[in-house]
Amino acid sequence: MAEQNRKWWILSVAAAGVLLSTIDASIVNIALPTISEHFNSSVRNTAWVTISYLLVITVTLLLFGRLSDIYGQKLIFTGGLLIFTASSGLCALSGSITMLIIFRSIQGIGAAMIVSNTTAIVTNAFPPAQRGTGLGVIGAVVSVGLMSGPPLGGMIIHYFGWQYIFMVNLPVGLGAILLTLKILPEFKGDRGAALFHPADLILWIAGITILIIGFRVSGNISTMVIDLIMFPVVSALILTIFFMRQGNAVSPLLRPSILGNRVFLFASLAGLFSYMTMISLTFMLPFLLEYSFGKSPLESGRILMMIPATTVVASPLSGYLSDRFGQRPIASLGTFLSTLSILFMFFITPASPIIQLVAGLVVFGIGLGMFGSPNNSAMMGSVDIKDRGSAGGILATVRNLGMVSGMGIISVIYNSGLAGGGESTSMAYFAAFRHALPVVTSFSLVALIFSGLRKSVS
User: Fold this and answer.
1) Phi and psi (nearest 5°) for 445?
2) Are residues 334 and 318 in contact, defined by beta-carbon separation less than 8 angstroms?
3) Nearest of 156, 394, 170 to residue 272 by alpha carbon
4) CB atoms near residue 35 (< 10 Å)
5) Side-chain half-sphere of 97: how many Cα atoms within 13 Å?
């Protein structure tokens, strides 16, 4: 294999892994009603098929990122593909909803091992002048995975049954494992480093789990408000102890040098609020389209595909531009466009032509694509090569935390607006959307501020 082509083959292997994990994150949601009927399970219990997967990924990303720094990225990445593929087969063979949730949790472990290493693998394979391009392709693959999951899942369920949404992972996963063993080089870890203290891992998992459960367990507005205060406070106390321990640890789970890196810190905060913005808007829009604009679920899905469809195009292009002009101007311009598109939605009414909303979504998708790749490039380029596994784990953790926390906050705001939205269903959902838009705008503005504060990395 020619040396100049090796980085593209490595990119293809990393892309295959991230495609598997992102498709599986979105493809299962459309099967939840069918799974609920198959196992005669309540909606609340069936929801844990998705929640368990996301929860396990979020709490273990940092762990596997750090382990890859010690034992090498190839070992953790390949092991993740193996666990993910095997657990996919077990999910298809599940005989009860409890078994399915357990196997989905194991699948989440495999996905975390894959995702925590993807960014580091691509960063190490590409020279600094092309880092943004490589990460831009990964950003596009993420969008393709999230976009293709629902329609692909619907087709598989219609023709074959829900079990086959997991069975399709078997040939793809086995192929990815063979390619990984053959192509992926071994970026040797620091095997002489001491393993982190188990108490650090326990504190991290406990803190993140309590935070996420606080956003998920509430059943109505009154209890949700209590949960959104109590659980984050307890989580903050636990995580404060965790971060204090990291500063004195011989072998920290999260290196203090990363925490003290202003470029990495500001890029992480910008990413956190960007994902909060994205999940908040995509949570509200289906209700707006179906109840205020009278669109069917199929029509709503086609309209909402404008976001990932434009992100797919903008992501690799913005990565290329950031290699030439720096990450800060490109990422900040993207966040600025996203913020403008949200502000534009204040002028939309139920009588507005649907093309007006579509235009706003196209600009929003372009803004997301322009922000993601340069911001990730700045994060990964600002840390030492020996810490890139941990950095990749943090990057993926930020993405998941942003989506979970954004969903929790916006659901409270949206439901409160829905309760006082008026007599007609159409106006109630429109009022709830307008009621929550200032919060979404504030998320995007905070992302813009941190993106502007963060310097570019050469």
Assistant:
1) -65, -40
2) yes
3) 394
4) 19
5) 19
Instruction: Look up residue 411 and give its two tokens.
Output: 């659901």
Query: Residue-wise pLDDT tens for the chain (458 aa)?
Result: 555 677 888 888 888 888 887 777 767 766 777 788 888 887 667 778 877 887 888 888 888 888 887 788 888 889 999 999 999 999 999 989 999 999 999 999 999 998 888 877 887 778 877 777 777 777 777 767 766 666 677 778 778 888 888 988 898 889 888 888 888 777 665 655 667 778 888 998 898 888 877 765 544 556 666 666 788 889 889 989 988 888 777 777 777 777 778 888 898 899 999 988 988 887 788 778 878 888 776 677 678 778 878 888 888 888 788 878 888 889 899 999 999 999 999 998 888 898 999 999 999 989 988 898 888 888 877 777 767 667 777 877 888 788 777 876 777 787 777 766 556 777 888 888 888 899 999 999 999 999 888 877 76
> Distance between CA atoms of 354 and 350, rounded to whole angstroms?
9
> C-alpha angle with apex 29: 27 to 32, nearest 5 degrees?
120
User: CA-to-CA distance for 327 and 320, rounded, in angstroms?
Assistant: 10
What is the distance between the alpha carbons of residues 120 and 443, in angstroms, rounded to a whole number?
Answer: 27
- Residue 26 identity: S
| Amino acid found at 264 | F
> pTM to 2 decimals?
0.76
Q: At what angle do helices 131-159 and 3-27 cross, to 10 degrees?
A: 40
Cα–Cα distance measured from residue 90 to residue 82, given in angstroms and rounded to the nearest whole number: 13
Residue 186, sorted as left (phi over 0), alpha (psi -120 to 50) or beta, turns out to be beta
Q: Which of 171, 177, 176, 170 is nearest to 93 (CA)?
A: 170
- Report the number of secondary-structure helices (H) and strands (E) in the chain: 19, 0
What sign results for the dihedral spanned by CA atoms 143, 115, 106, 236? negative
The whole-angstrom separation of Cα 69 and Cα 54 is 23
Contact present, 82 and 20 (Cβ < 8 Å): no
CB atoms within 10 A of CB 247: 10
